Amino acid sequence: MDTAPLRTVSQRRNDELRAYLLSLAETCPVDKRNPEDCPLFLLRKMKPARRLQWFNALDEDDLVYLATYHHVCMHIKAALKLDANLPLITSRAT
Description:
By secondary structure, this protein is mainly α. It has helices spanning 9-24, 41-45, 48-56, 60-85. Helices cover 60% and strands 0% of the residues.
C-alpha cells in the first residue's frame, strides 16, 4: 500500500503549472526566440542551475501570472501572424 500523502488539487495544479512554465524557460514556443518584452527574458539568459533555483522560488501567484501572460501573448502573436498572412482587400470604386 502506498503510504505517500495524497496531494491536494492545489498541489497538483501548482506542479502542472511549474512543469508547463519550466518548458517556457528555454525559449518562446511561438517563435523559438527570447523576446525582450517577455517576463522570462532574463531567466532564459541564466545558467540552467541558477534558472531552476529562481524558478523554484516562485509562489503560485507568480506561476499563475506567468502562465496568464504567456497565454495572452501566444494568442496575440498567433493573431498577428494570421493577419500578416491574409491578403489585403481593397475596395474598388465602381
